[in-house]
């Protein structure tokens, strides 16, 4: 799939990236204005990873996501208004206001959920892969996690299970250089996190995480491998988070220059330049993508704001499932 | 559990195995995995020959990675399967607490009801085998404190089968705490796949002087103690909650109301154990007005389980301890 | 805590930091590690500038590996150091339960006294920040159930400092459960390194109509409620156990004996929470005979903590709930 | 250090191996005769690993051990009578009868303890290494674990911590081919477990675990590296356990032939042959080592049997330390 040269794909990729960007800018703004509660983790600057990765997926495929999961959710096809409603603690939110940003899931589109626990989704992805494999299906499971996650026991155990059972899982590490304030170089001694794949006997590759095409190509190959029954892969997508880790972050652990140098590598600008250069889309078509994203986010906020607040009435009866009908 | 025509004597371990086999036979989504559950037949021989009946795919050996295993069960359940996980000793749930408590227990609620996690975690608890402090704990209080989990502790052969079948049916994560010392015990159980409903206590015996509430291996010790007490003219009602979460409070309240005295017996250390919850519940229930004596707990000592047999025995309630405590409670109040 | 001349107002977070600094100053063996405790200053800003004062060696950032971190603390303690571990949210102790419970808590006993594990694990618990179910739990009951651990829950600024200093001195593993909502609260604390002894409850206020026992953030809510109750002619004794394990049972028994009524308030879900232990203890104590009313618990709902602010508030006791419950208890009994 | 050519070292190594063998044969026998309680994990057939490894250690060094720890304990210099007393639930046992086989420790000789938790000792070893390093000492910490342990999260996290902080730890994997019944080939996809070292940026090497010299050389080099401040290493020593995993083992997962072929690789016989071949020791000197081991074990049993049974009197006061004086 050529993201840059195919007009339809380029439009889709660009719109997705802009939607993620605009959505999170809106969230940032709502927080700053005290209109949003809790905490938030923004993936601004990292939009190419979920965008490129999810273009390799199709219906029936699963993803597991993280605390920094808005992008994954959007790229996998979630409804913006239900996402926004969740963040605004509305009854119409994906989790009826019970989960918030860190727990948005959209089981209908195969998004098994963001996760507040670092690496928490990794063994879950292995389990979803096991389900797929036991049913003889050819779906793939894509598990997103950060560079900080790879030092958790859960990550190690989950990847190993997927490896020994040849499960159809693609492990996508969004290496944005820091786990909160811990630089990836201090947290591990390997040059590339993808090198860890060797410890599980699976392929590992490091790609430019600010290039949706590179991400896509690597994920696509891994997804095909997974569908063919050849087991999991590890893909490290190197990228950068522009914003602080969360609202409490004073950015003491990194320099202004470092942040600026990565802002110059804006994945969206780079992609737009490439698309223009290839003459796949015109300036005004780019602007249309941008506008579509902006409008969609605005509409989502409007719809969400109009929805009823989450209700505390049924809390106690919401803990256990009565079973699906 | 009503007696059925096809009831016969089998062991507790066989009852568990039979339930697993029947569940796997009747539902393709049910499968079993854990350390050494395949060819080895399980550390306590519970899974036995199941791998030969259902294959290595559905009776799946795992590496030693409890967190990963439970996490994989969560994922498989989310994706529509009905996984059953065996953790070799309940002590090793410590390794997997994140997936049990932060994931399995919370997902249904946290996702606003959009997903469910129908999985079963089986693990043997308890002391008495000389396996010392890291292999002998009774950790039911941990799980019973967590909203979103259901917790059962089968104390009889029939319940080992019936509660497990009900747990497998349940759309929520259920922790099934078996007991090592019970595995070889024999008792009646129906051949057919009869469910013991979750959330219903069993009154194992009826008396007038006191109510003994006991869990796990303490149920049979309480019954033995009740026999001996009867010989001394003290008659006891013995209640086995069976399901700790959700707890059948009504049965406990009713029986304690009737006898006016309650002795709560558990193997776990006293402080913060499950029986503290039962006591607290009683003391703020309608039974409070009928209490003729303080609600007494007879529990494991607040110590890690020691290795030496005489120390291990001293660390948890034995039949004579129950007899003595019950006698005191009845005679002094 | 007797007021000293050098007492001034600082925040709870500052009090913790001051204790850490003083302990590190006076004992080379003391060091601090955890996720983002260095340059970042801690997820809640507690460690602040300590890395600049003591260097990256003694205020050590770690990768995200709670089990490894706590295990390393156990090893360092066994090898003669006095490590202090910060776990960012107490929910993540789930990752480390094996090292906390199967190792740290048991080693001294299991090794026949030949070794000790003098370490401190600090972690903030509680809800109220909109962080939802995986970042808001109150898990003190887990730890208080484990022989070999000591557990403290500082509720005031002075205790945040004093209990931590005592915990660092202690030759056993101590779990210090701080509270996120308290970090920014100000209060008096002595400048000097005054210890709050472990195992001693604090009577925060005295009254005649009922005793309110409360932990963590519920202590200040209970005190606020007691103010309001006083205006309505109901006077309450408020007891803050401070140390949950070992529990100062005597103070609780004495104050409840004096008032005849007990209201136990915790943030954690009711079922199997720490207050169940307090209730059970009371109901089998000499206070039982003096009870004019059932021992009542006012607890968090048995639900995971929800995200939405109105839901989150509804899930745990608030001041008006305490006032209402206390009033009912006094008026109806 | 030449274990085969130096008479004193050869005598020491051989006596250690025989002592482990005889000790465990005695334990096996006591169990079979119902004179010993609980459970047991025998390392018969694996004696070369602790023997070769501990010869690289000196005073002040630490080890962490496992459920299959008798050999480590003996090789690190524990007293046999106190070990036996522990197994026989005596007050004079290392743990005063409170720990049993899985918890024998000898803190005085630097043995921080066997561990009933697979991989439980690995992060503990990292922590001991951290203590050593923070104090500026040049001690080493040797952490024994099995092939089954390397798939635990605790292992991953512990090794990574040691790696990033260049801690003086030597990780020794006793790959006896099975974790209980799980073959190492089914539990992971790497050819050699030592390959996992690459995931942590530390050296890894696989050696013949039935050759105490090979084990020693690898450990010695790693210990020197550790003392010099150059960080941890991973050593995989391939060996085999002759007996079942524990008393409940029916050996259904491996063949008689496999067991026999490994029995032919008896590390003790091989070492004796080598020592004879090099004329380092005579037949009668070999016999003397054997006898010394046998006598020491017999004496230990006698001493232990004569000791008072562990007492339940002080259980409650034994839970917390009152502090060292
Ligand atoms: C088990 C666990 N430990 C710690 C945290 C706190 N925490 C949340 S995000 C984060 C950093 C994660 O880093 P990384 O995996 O690189 O993801 P990023 O935030 O960079 O996207 C930490 C430490 C957590 N949520 N879960
Ligand atoms: C955390 C944990 N999981 C499971 C067990 C049960 N168990 C004890 S030993 C063992 C096998 C260990 O295999 P390995 O590490 O290869 O050591 P070996 O027994 O072969 O010496 C298992 C599964 C345990 N003790 N701890
Ligand atoms: Mg990161
Ligand atoms: Mg092995």
Automatic annotation (TrEMBL), chains A, D:
The lineage of its organism: Bacteria, Bacillati, Actinomycetota, Actinomycetes, Pseudonocardiales. GO terms for molecular function: magnesium ion binding; pyruvate dehydrogenase (acetyl-transferring) activity. GO terms for biological process: pyruvate decarboxylation to acetyl-CoA. This is Pyruvate dehydrogenase E1 component alpha subunit. Residues 16-310 form the Dehydrogenase E1 component domain. It comes from the Bacteria. The keyword Ion transport does not apply. Keywords: Oxidoreductase, Pyruvate, Thiamine pyrophosphate. It comes from Tamaricihabitans halophyticus. Its cofactor is thiamine diphosphate. InterPro entries: DH_E1 (IPR001017), PDH_E1_Alpha_Subunit (IPR050642), THDP-binding (IPR029061). PANTHER family: PYRUVATE DEHYDROGENASE E1 COMPONENT SUBUNIT ALPHA (PTHR11516:SF60), PYRUVATE DEHYDROGENASE E1 COMPONENT, ALPHA SUBUNIT BACTERIAL AND ORGANELLAR (PTHR11516).
UniProtKB/TrEMBL annotation, chains B, C:
Pfam families: Transket_pyr, Transketolase_C. Keywords: Oxidoreductase, Pyruvate, Thiamine pyrophosphate. It comes from the Bacteria. InterPro entries: THDP-binding, Transketo_C/PFOR_II, Transketolase-like_Pyr-bd, Transketolase_C. The keyword Oxidoreductase applies. One of its GO terms (molecular function) is oxidoreductase activity. Its cofactor is thiamine diphosphate. Residues 10-185 form the Transketolase-like pyrimidine-binding domain. SUPFAM superfamilies: Thiamin diphosphate-binding fold (THDP-binding), TK C-terminal domain-like. This is Pyruvate dehydrogenase E1 component beta subunit. It comes from Tamaricihabitans halophyticus. The lineage of its organism: Bacteria, Bacillati, Actinomycetota, Actinomycetes, Pseudonocardiales.
